[in-house]
Amino acid sequence: MIRNAAAGPGSLGSLRSQLMRWLLVPLLILVALDAVSVYYNALEVADIAYDRSLLASTRALAERVSVVNGQVVADVPYVALDSFETDTLGRIYYKVTGVKGEFVSGYDDLPPLPANVKRSEAYPALVRFYQAEYHGQPVRIAALYQPVYDDTMRGIALIQVGETMDARRGMTRKILFDTMWRQGVLVTVAALLVWFAVRFVLRPLMQLRSEVESRAPTDLSDFDPARVHKEVRPLVLAMNGYMERLQTLITGQRRFIADASHQLRTPLTVLKTQAELALREFDRTPGDPRALRELVESIAGTTDSTVHLANRLLTLARAEHGAVEGGIGPVSLTDAARQVALELAQNAVAKRIDLSFDAAGDVLIDGSPLLLRELVVNLLDNAIRYTPADGRIAVRVGYQKIAADSHAVLEVEDTGAGIPASDRERVFAPFYRAPSAQLVNPHGAGLGMSIVRDIASAHGAEIILADGANDAGLLVKVRFPAATRA
């Protein structure tokens, strides 16, 4: 069953949605912060504008304050009082206090000037601005100290003019609403532009997705990285590399299936023929036990060859596909070679072959224990098969220094027929057998050296074929990188 990965846990969701969120949410936050800033800036602008107007009214009232017969008086005409009380921008209140703190004119309950209010530095006058509550309404009050004098006295009177905050708040709201309206339009336009931009930018990815979905299962050709953006090209190149590895794997599997079916068809046909002959011989009256035994022995021999071929084919498939059963780690090449030599010693003794083993300590490499054992088995089994009776085989394990690098080396040397120099590259091809090898062992599968090559390649090793001692036989040298850790 195919499950949609987009609906699974831990899904990243839509790229378009994420881009929209990451672009628009911060923009909305910035707009909100800007709105707060605009609000306070509007308050400051309104205060500056209305404070100037309030100071002008205070100065106009201060010009009406004088000293008459030693008393501070405020000559405020009725028309001026009426304009104070009916100002269209809000109600205005005033209070005049004499030199000695006595009430002179205006609203005697107007909130007094607090002691901690500092003089305004914005105007060349002894004026202070403060806010207070008056008759349940917030008011802004300007307090101006005005010198008064005549021939009988001299002093400073206090003129206070207060204004309700309605006009200021109205102006602040108007500035804020105008700004928010413009920013709302700006955000809406920006959202549309971002949506279209994201849609346009993601179009190559959508086209790539459509191309992937429309491809046939057997089409593993590369995608063109030039059709997507530079930031996405590494992903496309990685996809191409993966499909190349997948193509290699599929090709290997097809070749393995073709080779296996071809190689197994012949022994299985022979096995079937031998079985039919055995049945015919068994049905004869009377049957010849000797002929029947020969047929059964032929069947047994063919079965052994078929099992050997099947095992070699499975090993080849495992080596070609880079199987690492048992994991990768430090492996003792010495132990692997010694164990295989002990297991195959009986085969060597049966042919009267002198099998020797020599190791320079415990030689370690990084690799798969199972695949490494298969490599040694194939090398030593080939040496035993192609070395004549009374011959010699030497297995050696040690280190070799090349430049500044240390390498682990496995050598298998025999006194057999060897491999001509012209065939040493071809023997690594599956099912290829040199003419000299066919003469010595006509029932071979031709897979041993191919298996050795694939396992060595999986371990980063190098294989060298050379003549044995005294230019006789074959020397196979496999040079591995030494283990990186103990």
What is the fold's blueprint, element by element?
Layout: H1 15-62, E1 65-68, E2 71-74, H2 78-85, E3 92-97, E4 103-106, E5 127-134, E6 137-149, E7 154-164, H3 166-201, H4 203-214, H5 233-283, H6 289-320, E8 329-332, H7 333-350, E9 354-359, E10 364-367, H8 369-386, E11 392-402, E12 405-414, H9 435-440, H10 448-458, E13 462-467, E14 474-481
Parallel strand pairs: 9-11
Antiparallel strand pairs: 1-2, 3-4, 3-7, 5-6, 6-7, 8-10, 11-12, 12-14, 13-14
Describe this structure in words.
With 486 residues, the chain is of the alpha+beta class. The protein has helices at residues 15-62, 78-85, 166-201, 203-214, 233-283, 289-320, 333-350, 369-386, 435-440, 448-458, and strands spanning 65-68, 71-74, 92-97, 103-106, 127-134, 137-149, 154-164, 329-332, 354-359, 364-367, 392-402, 405-414, 462-467, 474-481. The strands form 4 sheets. Strands 4-3-7-6-5 form a 5-stranded antiparallel β-sheet. Strands 9-11-12-14-13 form a 5-stranded mixed β-sheet. The longest helix is centred in the middle third of the chain and has 51 residues, at 233-283. Residues 1-9 have low confidence and may be disordered. Keywords: Kinase, Membrane, Phosphoprotein, Transferase, Transmembrane, Transmembrane helix, Two-component regulatory system.
